[in-house]
Amino acid sequence: MSHPFPPVLIEKLKTAQRVAVLTGAGVSAESGVPTFREAQTGLWAQYDPQELATPRAFRQNPKLVWEWYAWRRQLAAKAEPNPGHLALAEMGKRVPHFTLITQNVDGLHPRAGSRHVVALHGDITRTKCFADGRPVAVWPETDQIPPRCPRCDGLLRPDVVWFGEGLPPDALGTAVSAARSCDLFFSIGTSALVQPAASLPIEALNSGAFVVEINLNETPLTPHIHLLLKGASGVILPKLIQAVWA
User: Fold this and answer.
1) Cα–Cα distance measured from residue 73 to residue 159, given in angstroms and rounded to the nearest whole number
2) Which helix (H) or strand (E) segment is 237 a member of?
3) 128 and 159 in contact (C-beta within 8 Å)?
4) Cα–Cα distances in Å, from 81 out to 32, 44, 110, 242?
5) Other CB atoms closer than 10 Å to residue 63's CB: what's the count?
6) Based on the number of CB atoms within 10 Å of its own CB, is 35 exposed (0-12), middle (13-18) or buried (19 or more)?
7) Using an 8 Å Cβ cutoff, are 246 and 238 in contact?
8) In 10 A of CB 245, how many CB atoms?
9) Cβ neighbour number for residue 129 with a 10 Å cutoff
10) Which pLDDT tens digit goes with each residue over 166-179?
């Protein structure tokens, strides 16, 4: 079967022992999840997302921030994993050591079947206490918005990384380690602008990995990598899986 991929990529993926993948908003956008900075609709059109996604905004108006994230959570829940998500889950089954790192918070990778996803920016489907930062899975039913932590009565918040907050140390450490030790690195659907995630493919390059970018457009990363596959991840990735493991 013919395919549009360079033989070097087929061979690299077929023989790789360690593969690391970084996904960004472009992957979720193919499932209909609006990117973080896209214009809001309806009630939320008057708000700047960057002004709602901060600890300061939550302290000033916790109800507003909680309800905005509840709306975003509904959008994510209605979305379905696309063929790109499913192809990455399949790749994870084929490669001996596979690390999927994502900047997305919508939980679509786990829903597609990917295991041990490194969520750099958190997960909108999870909740934690604003006071102590510990995860909270269940809490008493209440009309109060946001609800309260059953342990300390602190306000609950989405378990995502806000502006001005550091990334989860364990997640970042795992991501950096995977980038430095992989044979092959994919940067998929990300602008390559948001740090520290944008540094991961550079870490991989500096460590000798073959780096591939899959994106609709070129990015600041493009001049430095080995190969750009221009197009939608939901189109390219299934074909790549078929070409390598048919």
Assistant:
1) 12
2) helix 233-245
3) yes
4) 10, 25, 9, 19
5) 12
6) middle
7) no
8) 12
9) 21
10) 999 999 999 999 99
Contact 136, 156 (CB under 8 A): yes
Please state, in angstroms and as integers, the Cα–Cα distance from residue 168 to each residue in 118, 159, 202, 224, following that order. Answer: 10, 10, 20, 28
| Active-site residue, 116 included | no
Q: Which of 176, 181, 243, 169 is nearest to 209 (CA)?
A: 181
Q: How far is the CA of 214 from the CAs of 68, 123, 192, 210, in angstroms?
A: 31, 23, 11, 13
> In the numeric block, which tokens belong to residue 83?
């063929």
Burial class (CB in 10 A: 0-12, 13-18, 19+), 45: exposed
Q: Provide Rg for the chain, Cα atoms.
A: 19
Vertex 23: Cα angle to 78 and 166 (nearest 5)? 95
Q: Give the confidence band of 37 by pLDDT, cuts at 50, 70, 90.
A: low
Taking only the tens place, the pLDDT of each residue in 107-151 is: 999 999 999 899 999 999 999 999 999 999 999 888 899 999 999
- Say how far apart CA 70 and CA 53 lie, in whole Å: 13
Residues paired with residue 156 on neighbouring β-strands, in sequence order: 129
As a whole number of angstroms, the distance between CA 112 and CA 109 comes to: 5
Distances (CA, A) of 217 to 9, 70, 191, 220, 229: 20, 31, 9, 10, 9
Asked whether the beta carbons of 167 and 120 are under 8 A apart, the reply is yes
Which of 3, 85, 109, 121 is labelled catalytic?
121
Rounded Cα gap, residues 142 and 132, in angstroms:
21
- C-alpha distances in Å from residue 224, one per residue of 104, 143, 202, 203: 24, 52, 8, 12
